[in-house]
Write a structure and sequence with these properties.
Chain lengths: 484, 451
């Protein structure tokens, strides 16, 4: 039932203010709204109950194991939420003068410094509001760099075929063309193909490391040399930074610019699809092009660095200061991990992934790259099950929902047929991983003895499989009041 | 170990299952030359008590001024239930609803949000949100260029009365694809964009005209005439609106003869605290015919295998994870939790509540302006009607006046001198429903003292 179905004319919940009669007398009738907005009229209790019940139809980290590969669904500490929600932070207007914002700016300044150290980069801008916007910033900086060099011929971005879809979409948004680089059978970038692809038209390469195949790109030093020698720059997609936190740094690998997903690596919530935060970090060569504002320190105080301080900046990507509240959450988390805690994240994320991969192999499942160590995530392929039993990766995923586990990422990366990309994260305990293995074993058994059972799943969720063709064809995208 | 559950017995058993001697051995594929042993510039870890104390000190270090500053971000009362419910772990710690059977809560909230925004703006379709108002405008303009089949142009007309930060953000994002913003002059008496400002561009090819209602000065534009002008020129009409204002101002879907084509703006007034600039959310609505050019997530209502109604992400063929380099945008994560809060906000205050909020803000600003224009040398800069915010001319430089107010605990407004030097000594002032008559009197008295 929709909130609109609970609505009754004249019912009200919260009335924040009552306006005087004359309030709108100076606004001409021609500019006024003629009919009231079609919003629901419900009581406070009705609204609270409606949305509480809706929340209970969700799987979430707080309620379920959520091993969604490449999304790093780790525990979002309550303390980060509580401290970022202190009234002093929530009540601060974005245009408030810096002399009354030193507490807030100190947090951002220190977060910038910590992210510099973690990434091995020279400077950080915190403004991008999601990973994809961080990518945009980084690739726009590559473009601005070449333009500043007077080199207008570098119009192509190289992207491995295993990359996230955001990479090619970002390159296009930045006005580049895209060339895909194939992957070899061990999951590494095909170096021969890369050598052939680079040239005076190469603006840069976008790379995730560990790649979306869940393995570390071992030839990264060679890749960096090939691209740099050709005059191109290297972009690091920080989606998988959780795997290498405190172990190795993109700056040391030869990357020139990168983004971080604070909603992955730094435990800020995913919120049902945002808000995230995608700070961008750059080495000395690209630092002048970082988006503004950046927090600077002069004398005893902090202040915003703007276009006037950084004339080569690619400019502003948000009207104000990005997702400031998300940055505060990440700051709290980073301070709680501290100097020794970063590497520990990678340690246990990697331990959990390799353990889960070993146990699933033990249970008869096929890792996509059995010859490789897993990073913080790994892939199993259900090609065999699809062929012999007619039960697909999607069927396994849907049946997992019945058994109380969120499904791993399905059918991505596209290079591996019938794949599940599984990322347990460091915050899951061994018992949870064992229970997940047991669930997949059970589904395998069901697939062997009664595949129809698996193909019809889920049965125990609020809805069964949805008619997505009908959704796209009928396009019911909004409720409308009857007969209006 | 904070947030890590492993006991030493667990670690031993897990390594044995893997067949690895140590955790360190699991990193053997990283070339040794690239390894770091330590991150010496990082501070030592703080425990929960220590970080709580540090953050409390930091938050308390920033004074809580009485806020009469708007300029695109507005202090509104947020009903207690909004964040009590939006902050539930099931909303807070879920991800993008890729598995609809395990995400009906988030999906239905997004569908209800889309419905509310479509209703408020008078448009057929709303997406499930973008990042913020500035970046939403950028996406709206990229969309307009894709969607306008009658125009070959990548040029867009935009009045200088549009928020200067929106113009900057939009430029930074769209110029990479060759789009160009062409700025229109505004009327110095009215503070609006008259048709006369458009006349020099008649007959030229533009993809779109941007129309802000209210504009950055709070002034109401002649939206019907501007919309019709755009359509006569084969340009799309792109509206930038304040969602609170839509409770009392004509919705863009009804502007002119056929209505605006694309509507965007910042959803901050709907339940998001000021929070130093974010997170807020951008909204984007459009006519039905343009839906396939829309960026971002869209939720549709459909049925399941048993014919039961349910919700799912739809039209994903527009998006980066399917279309890659041919996607409408690179956007992936949007601002789901802020949209959850906005949906709760709108459900809790309802149509009359939103109207009362809008009208009270407006009445407060009127009352404030009446009081402070009694001060010699203070006057309204423009003579046209406004909504809940207005430009005042001052007898002294705005910066000095605002500093004086700050010293007395008042965040008094926005200094227009750097973005609009032609206005001279001027500031932008706003009083929302969070102020009562005493606050307004106090501001007026203090301003008189400062001046």
């Amino acid at each position: 039932m929709l909130i609109f179905d609970r609505s009754r004319p004249g019912r009200q919940a919260v009335i924040p203010a009552i306006a005087p009669e004359f309030a709108l007398s100076d606004i001409p009738e021609s500019l006024r709204r003629k009919k009231p907005a079609p919003l629901p009229e419900v009581s406070e209790l009705q609204a609270v109950r409606h949305y509480t019940r809706l929340s209970q139809q969700n799987f979430s980290i707080d309620t379920h194991f959520y091993p969604l590969g490449s999304c790093t669904m780790k525990y979002n500490p309550r303390v980060c939420h509580q401290l970022a929600s202190l009234p002093g932070f929530l009540a601060r207007h974005p245009l408030a003068p810096v002399r009354g914002s030193q507490g807030f700016l100190a947090c951002l300044y220190e977060l910038q410094a910590m992210l510099q150290e973690i990434t091995g980069m020279a400077a950080v801008s915190l403004t991008p509001m999601a990973g994809a916007q961080g990518e945009f910033a980084g690739v726009a900086m590559i473009r601005a760099y070449h333009v500043a060099q007077g080199d207008l011929t570098r119009r192509e971005i190289l992207i491995p075929d295993a990359a996230h879809g955001t990479n090619p979409a970002t390159a296009i948004m930045c006005g580049f063309t895209v060339r895909e680089i194939p992957t070899d059978q061990n999951g590494d970038v095909d170096l021969a193909a890369l050598r052939q692809a680079v040239g005076p038209h190469t603006a840069g390469l976008m790379l995730t490391n560990p790649s979306t195949l869940g393995v570390f790109e071992r030839h990264i030093a060679e890749i960096a040399e090939i691209v740099h020698t050709a005059g191109g720059l290297l972009y690091y997609d920080g989606a998988n930074l959780n795997a290498i936190l405190g172990k190795t740094r993109p700056g040391d690998m030869g990357f020139d610019v990168m983004h971080l997903n604070l909603h992955k690596t730094f435990a800020t919530p995913h919120g049902g699809g945002g808000p995230g935060a995608g700070p961008v970090a750059a080495n000395a060569r690209l630092a002048p092009f970082l988006p503004v504002p950046i927090v600077g320190q002069t004398g005893g105080g902090y202040r915003w660095l703007t276009e006037a301080d950084r004339p080569q900046s690619i400019g502003r990507l948000s009207a104000f200061m990005g997702n400031a509240g998300v940055l505060l959450r990440a700051y709290v988390y980073a301070r709680m991990l501290g100097r020794t805690g970063m590497g520990r994240v990678a340690d246990y994320a990697t331990l959990n992934a390799n353990y889960l991969q070993a146990e699933l192999a033990n249970a008869g499942f096929d890792p996509a790259f059995p010859q490789r160590l897993a990073s913080h995530e790994f892939i199993i392929t259900l090609k065999r099950q699809a062929k012999t039993l007619g039960v697909t990766a999607m069927d396994f995923a849907k049946r997992l929902l019945d058994l109380g586990f969120h499904a791993p990422t399905t059918y991505f990366p596209m290079l591996v047929p019938e794949c599940l990309l599984i990322e347990p994260t460091e915050t899951e305990c061994k018992e949870e991983l064992d229970a997940f293995v047991a669930a997949l074993r059970q589904i395998q058994q069901e697939a062997e003895t009664g595949p129809e059972q698996v193909k019809g799943a889920p049965y125990h969720r609020p809805v069964r499989r949805l008619d997505e063709v009908r959704a796209a064809r009928d396009m019911d995208l909004a409720w409308r009041p009857a007969a209006s | 170990m904070p947030f890590i559950p492993h006991t030493s017995d667990d670690v031993r058993a897990m390594l044995a299952a893997i067949g690895a001697p140590t955790i360190e051995a699991l990193f053997a594929e990283i070339p040794p030359a690239l390894r770091v042993a330590d991150l010496p510039a990082l501070p030592d870890a703080l425990n929960e008590r220590q970080i709580a104390r540090l953050m409390a000190e930091r938050a308390a270090a920033d004074p809580q001024w009485r806020c009469f500053l708007g300029a695109g971000v507005y202090e509104h009362h947020i009903p207690a239930a909004v964040w009590e419910i939006a902050g539930r772990g099931e909303f807070y710690s879920a991800y993008t609803p890729y598995q609809p059977e395990a995400s009906q809560g988030t999906l239905q909230v997004l569908y209800e949000y889309q419905s509310m925004m479509a209703g408020l703006t008078g448009m057929a379709v709303s997406n499930a949100s973008l990042y913020d108002g500035g970046s939403a405008l950028a996406e709206a303009l990229l969309m307009a260029v894709r969607a306008n089949r009658k125009s070959k142009s990548k040029r867009i007309l935009v009045s200088r009365t549009l928020h200067p930060y929106y113009r900057r953000a939009a430029h930074a994002i769209i110029h990479n694809q060759g789009l160009e913003l062409v700025e229109l002059a505004y009327d110095l008496t009215g503070g609006h964009t008259p048709e006369a400002a458009l006349a020099p561009y008649a007959g030229q090819d533009f993809a779109a005209l941007v129309i802000a209602q209210p504009n950055f000065f709070g002034v109401l534009e002649e939206v019907d005439a501007l919309t019709d002008w755009a359509h006569r020129q084969n340009a799309l009409a792109v509206a930038v609106v304040n969602p609170t204002a839509l409770a009392i101002l004509s919705p863009p879907g009804t502007w002119g003869v056929t209505g605006a084509d694309i509507v965007c703006g910042d959803g901050q007034p709907l339940g998001a605290p000021l929070s130093s600039g974010g997170p807020y959310f951008g909204f984007l609505c459009c006519r039905q015919e343009l839906v396939r050019q829309m960026p971002g997530r869209l939720v549709g209502r459909t049925v399941d295998l048993d014919g039961k109604p349910g919700f799912t992400l739809t039209l994903q063929a527009r998006e980066q994870h399917i279309r890659r380099s041919k996607a409408t945008s690179n956007i992936c994560t949007n601002q789901g939790l802020m949209v959850t809060a906005a949906t709760l906000y709108l459900a809790l205050i309802g149509p009359q509540g939103l109207e009362q909020v809008a009208a009270t803000c407006h009445a407060n600003t009127r009352s404030l302006v009446e009081q402070i224009t009694q001060i010699p040398g203070v006057s309204r800069a423009f003579d046209r009607p406004v909504f809940h915010e207005t430009v005042l001319k001052l007898p002294r430089p705005a910066q000095a006046v605002l500093e004086g107010l700050l010293e007395r605990g008042i965040l008094g407004g926005f200094d227009l001198s750097s973005d609009y030097p032609e206005l001279g000594q001027a500031m932008l002032v706003c009083a929302t429903e969070t102020k009562d008559e005493m606050d307004l009197c106090h501001y007026a008295k203090t301003l008189a003292t400062v001046i």
